[in-house]
Amino acid sequence: MTPDPTSQANETGETKSGRRGFMAFAAAGIAGIMIAPGVRLIEIAQAAPATGTASSGASSKVRWGMLIDSTKCASGCTDCVTACNTENGLSGGTKATDSQWIRKIEIKEVRTGKTQSLPMMCQHCAEPPCVDVCPTGASFKRADGIVLVDKHTCIGCRYCMMACPYKARSFVHSPQTNQKPDVPRGMGTVEACTMCVHKVDKGEMPACVSACASAGHEAILFGDLNNPESEISKRIASYPSRQIRENLNLDTGVRYLGI
Predict the structure, then answer these.
(1) pLDDT for 123-151, tens place per residue?
(2) What is the model's pLDDT at position 114?
(3) How far apart are CA 68 and CA 78, in angstroms?
(4) Where are the beta strands (DSSP E) in 70-216?
(5) Nearest to residue 148, comparing CAs of 164, 130, 162, 136?
(6) What is the Cα 73 distance to its own chain's centre?
(7) What fold characterizes domain 15-46+63-257?
(8) Which of 43, 108, 153, 224 has its CA 20 to 30 A from that of 202?
C-alpha cells in the first residue's frame, strides 16, 4: 500500500521525537550486546540529581562553564593542551587524523592588527547543533550543561562534526590501546572535550584549568554559571566577556575575556 504523502507531511513533532528516541534506545541496546562491559556515558548523564556540588552528579541547578582570559593566555603556551592530552590519553599529534580536544588558535583584529592567542575546545552550548543533528542520540547534553558523546551509540556518521561551528570534534581513525579507565574511546566514533566530566563529578577541576593555574597563568576559570555567588559568575558580571560566534545564539558554556 502506498503511504499517504499528506499524512507524512503532517507528521507531528511528538511523533518524530518518539521515533528518534526509539532509534537511540535500539542502538544502545544493540551496542550493549556487542561492546565489552564498561561505564556508559549515557548512564553518567542520567546520574542521580545533584545537590549543587560537583561531586554529586548532574543537575539542572548547576551549569558548568569556563571563563578564559585571553590577556593572560600567552602565544606559544600549550600547557592546557598538554594537560588535556595526558589526562585523556590523546597522542598530542596535530595531523588531520589526530584527535584534538583542545587547540590553541591565533586571532587577529582586522582594524588594529592586534593578535591574541586563546584555547579552543567544545563550547558546551546550551543549544548544541551537534545534538540536533545526531541520528542516534549519541551526542547529548547533560542536565548540568556538559555536552558528551556516548561511544556505545555513536555510528561515526560525523554529522555532528559538520554541524559544529567551532571545529571542536574529532573522529577516531585508528584502534585505541592503553586507554584511560575514566575516558572511553573507540575507533569509528566521534569525540571532543568532555570538560573532564570524570573529574568534575568527583569535585575536581578539569585538567586544563589545573595545569594553567599550576603554571602560574590562571587564564582559565571553571565554575557554576548558574550560581551568582560563584567566582566565574562574579567575574562575568564585573567584566565584559564574549562568546565565540555569539551571533548563532547557542549560549555557549565557555566565555572569553579580552577579545
Answers:
(1) 999 999 999 999 999 999 999 999 999 99
(2) 84
(3) 14
(4) 102-108, 115-121, 139-141, 147-149, 170-171, 190-191
(5) 130
(6) 21
(7) Alpha-Beta Plaits (3.30.70)
(8) 153
pTM value?
0.78
Q: What angle, 0 to 180 degrees and rounded to 10, lies between the N-to-C axes of helices 207-214 and 79-88?
A: 140
- Residue ranges of the domains in the chain? 15-46+63-257
Which H or E run contains 242? strand 241-242
Angstrom CA distances, 82 to 22, 33, 178, 207, stand at 40, 35, 18, 9
Q: How many other C-beta atoms lie within 10 A of the C-beta of residue 18?
A: 11
Let me know if 58 is exposed, middle or buried by CB neighbors in 10 A (0-12, 13-18, 19+): buried
Q: What pLDDT shows up at residue 108?
A: 84
Copy the grid coordinates of residue 60.
Answer: 539542572
**Within the chain, what is the greatest distance between any pair of CA atoms?**
70
Decide which of 12 and 128 is more confident: 128
**Is the pLDDT score of 213 beyond 50?**
yes
3, pLDDT greater than 90: no
| CA 38 to each of CA 89, 183, 203, 242: distance values in angstroms, whole numbers, following the listed order | 17, 11, 22, 39
**Cα–Cα distance, 19 to 24 (Å, whole number):** 9
